[in-house]
Amino acid sequence: MIKHERGIKIGMDTSQLFGSEKISKILFRLAPPVMLAQLIQALYNIIDSLFVGRYSDSGLTALSIIYPIQLLMIALAVGTGVGINTVMAAKLGSDSKMEAEEYAGIGTPLAALLWCLFALICWAIMPAYAKMSTSSPEVISDVVTYGRIVCVFSFGLFLESVWTKILQAQGNMKTPMAAQIIGAVTNIILDPLLIFGMFGLPEMGIAGAAIATVAGQVVAALVVMKKGFRKPAALREFPRRTGKIFRLGLPNILMQSAYTFYILGLNLILSGFSDQAVTALGLYYKWQTFFFIPLGAMQTCIVPVVSFNYAAKNIDRCKQTLSVAIGFGVALMALGTLCFNCIPSQMLRVFTKDETVVAIGSVGFHFVGFSFLPMVTSLTFPVFFQAVGKSLKSSLLTVIRTVVLFVPLGFLFSHFGLNWFWLTFPVTEVITSAVGFLFYRQFLDSDYVRTPAALPFNSGEIALKPSQPGVIITIAREHGSSGKQIGKLVAERLGIPFYYKEMVALAAHESGLDREFISDIHKNAPDVLRELYLNSSAVRMAIAAQAKIIRKIADNGSCVIVGRSADYVLRDREDVVRVFIHAPKKYRIKRVMEVYGDSLKEARRNIHRSDKARAAYYRHISGRRWADGRHYNLSVDSSIGVQETADLILAYVSGISEKIECQTGL
Question: Which of 223, 353, 511, 570 has its CA 20 to 30 A from that of 458?
């Protein structure tokens, strides 16, 4: 079984499913559950608006104004859950179940803390936020009432988001989906009862809509609590583990928050025209959800397909997957364009009877409808780049769209009148798509993509080397410290197998991934957003394949293993001697210049980059500091010489072996 980063469980062989099955068949197999989950979330928002619009026009405007705050709350809650989910998935992939549980134990207290902070801040700023967004006393009152209730009582949302991600990290998708369904049904049932005061209940208006929303969130949290709640971790573990969670979750929080700020910015621009203009924009976001559900599901489902084939260096299949996803998206969004241009007034009247809102929205819907086709590529390219580990490009496209273009263009076009404001949408999507195509061309021109896949190893090259039980020596080393040569010499002197590049061959054969991709995992990690790269689907597959092979090598008998965090992967074995080889920088610079022919400047740069990448990879795998001597049995300065360093290691291993023989009586 494998599980991609959004939580879909795949039952059949990965290489067969993602590597050779028809793309459209894969997507249509994976998409329906995701579509159902997103449809349920859409109903959450739409039902509120439907009943509130029937109750009062000011309440409908208030919902549009409070929408960015709700998005910010969801971004914080879900983004934190994503951080926990990602680190748990990585730990489970490397068979570190205990550590995965410890990270899960951070979730509940962290969610509670974030809820407290968010609730206090929102309670304090809500009146000022309402006055900033509108001058209508009635709308201000509704914003404060609704906003304070949904923010102050949002503990259900924070807890449910974290517990759901914990369950998804373990492959449990049924319980979270059941929670979403039950929560949505609760919200839908309570909305009319509390808003209009039915069956003897008091008429609460917009406050009733807010109470129905938080009640649905609490019910959903209760559904996932039994399986998602974990005993809180030890207090001393909180700072380090929380830091790891936010390193992984913060990019998601920031990207989702970008949507909050662009919608807030557009609301503020439209409030300069009228409250009805703000309402019209809010109703667009309600309707667009229905067309975005299948598009979003399709984008979610291409991630594991693209990731696997990129790691397997099947670039044609990556391109084919992107083409199928874009083709499907264009066909779907063409229907959206048709609806928004042919029946805009009918769509608006579902929610409101205010003719001013209908008039403004009808014009806006025409412009926005034409943005749907370029929107397919502007939203699909970031997902594609996320799948191939190009986190920086993915994030840049989102920032360009939501921060650089939407609000500045909206501000610019608004100077020509309200009708011209709506031109912001198609222009933004066209420009973002153009940048996405540029990034895609750069991707196709990259060395990894253009270099043909290496020929598979023959059976002799990938066979494990026979060995007797005894001692396993793992060697971690600084770049230029001659660790590889020393390890090979130790293996020859002991007459046991040596594994370095051989691990890559075995992992590639085991997983179906490209051996160049596996070999260069830590080298290819960018300095910016390195954690996101190391947690991308493709890289996680490669790391898991390596860990599996390292354990299999160790089970086969005595050997020397160089690199790949083998000391940590084999942390539970007692027959492992963990060695760290280091040397003064001057010595290493000289060695790198001699061995690789680097210039002085190149040697310094390559040593710095290589050591930094190895340290980051080790920290990602283990949560530990790479060069910390406490995690090794022996730390050796190799500047004494290659032969002399090998002698020291052999002497240490010999002493360990004699000690074991004495203890066992052999």
Answer: 570
pLDDT at 665: 43
Amino acid letter, 500: Y
> Amino acid identity of 112?
A
- How big, in percent rounded to 5, are the helix, strand and coil portions of the chain? 75, 5, 20
Positions in the chain short of pLDDT 70: 1-21, 30-31, 33-34, 37-38, 40-45, 93-95, 453-463, 522-532, 535, 656-666
Q: How many CB atoms lie within 10 A of CB 624?
A: 16
User: What pLDDT sits at residue 530?
Assistant: 66
**Which amino acid makes up residue 117?**
L
Residue 343: count other Cβ atoms within 10 Å of its Cβ. 13
What is the token pair recorded at 92? 């489970």
Report pLDDT for 362: 94
12 phi and psi angles, rounded to 5 deg = -90, 175
What pLDDT score was predicted for residue 94? 62
Q: How far apart are CA 531 and CA 252, in angstroms?
A: 12
641: left (phi over 0), alpha (psi -120 to 50) or beta: left
What 3-state DSSP class applies to 13?
Answer: coil
C-alpha 378: how far from its chain's center?
A: 18
Going by C-alpha positions, the residue among 399, 413, 465, 424 that lies closest to residue 256 is 399
Q: Which residues, other chains included, contact 94 with Cβ-Cβ below 8 Å and sequence gap of 6+? A: 543, 544, 547, 569, 621
Nearest one of 520, 81, 533 to 307, comparing CA atoms: 533
- How far is the C-alpha of 351 from the C-alpha of 60, rounded, in Å? 8
> What is the Cα–Cα distance from 610 to 303, expressed in whole angstroms?
29
Reading the block at residue 541, the tokens are: 């597959």
Is residue 280 within 8 Å of residue 420, measured between CB atoms? no
Say how far residue 29 (Cα) sits from the centre of its chain.
22
Task: Let me know if 250 is exposed, middle or buried by CB neighbors in 10 A (0-12, 13-18, 19+).
Answer: middle
Quick one: how far is CA 36 from the chain centroid?
21
pTM of the full predicted structure?
0.78
Phi, then psi, of 637 in degrees rounded to 5: -90, 110
